[in-house]
Specification:
The chain is mainly α. The chain has 9 helices and 2 strands; from the N terminus they run αααααβααβαα. 74% of the residues lie in helices and 2% in strands. It has a two-stranded parallel sheet.
Length: 197
């Protein structure tokens, strides 16, 4: 039996689907990955060329996390190796291996783009809306997790929201928090939520 995700040979799609809870949630994660891939790649390239190793380490950490969410485990492992190199100041390792990891990233992006272009041509991937109670619970739990500096919990909370359409009046705040999460800015999350919860 064929599946819409069979073309993702660089990803362990079945395992990622099992972790996310459904194919629709997984497809949403792939779309979020796709939407940010060009910007993320550009930022990594700029930081690498500027030899801004602190910023590079933060961004490669974000790539590691999102790669593992969509099942790109090899890319996630290679990104983690670069992250660890950045943390210990091993710039030679980064310079030697960056191009290889970027090439892997490009291959994953190409596969995701191809699969999404062919999936759900009938347009039956409508997202369910997140109601007001769900958003309040999310923001309250997010603030607590940021205050506790619990990165894993923050990631889990975002995972829980995959597949849900964020209400227009909450989208700006949601996107602000996600941007803070990408750079592991706990204070930024708490500050953004101060007037909300």
């Amino acid at each position: 039996m064929s599946h819409w995700y069979d073309g993702l040979t660089h990803l362990d799609a079945p395992a990622a689907i099992k972790k996310s809870g459904s194919e629709d949630f997984y497809k949403r994660a792939l779309k979020l990955f796709q939407e940010s891939s060009a910007e993320r790649r550009s930022e990594l390239t700029d930081l690498f060329e500027a030899e801004d190793w602190h910023g590079y380490t933060i961004k490669i950490h974000a790539l590691k996390s999102v790669a593992r969410i969509i099942g790109a485990m090899s890319l996630g492992d290679e990104a983690e190796a670069l992250e660890m190199a950045g943390k210990r100041g091993d710039t030679e390792y980064i310079k030697t291996n960056n191009d290889k990891v970027v090439a892997m990233y490009d291959e994953v992006c190409a596969q995701v783009n191809g699969v999404l272009a062919n999936a759900d041509k009938d347009g039956n991937c409508e997202l369910s809306p997140a109601d007001g109670t769900a958003m309040e619970d999310f923001f309250r739990a997010m603030k607590k997790a940021a205050e506790d500096m619990d990165l894993g919990r923050i990631g889990d909370l975002f995972d829980d929201m995959e597949g849900l359409a964020i209400p227009d009046n909450d989208k700006e705040l949601f996107d602000t928090i996600r941007s803070c999460f990408d750079i592991i800015d706990y204070d930024g999350i708490v500050s953004a939520l101060r007037d909300r919860v």
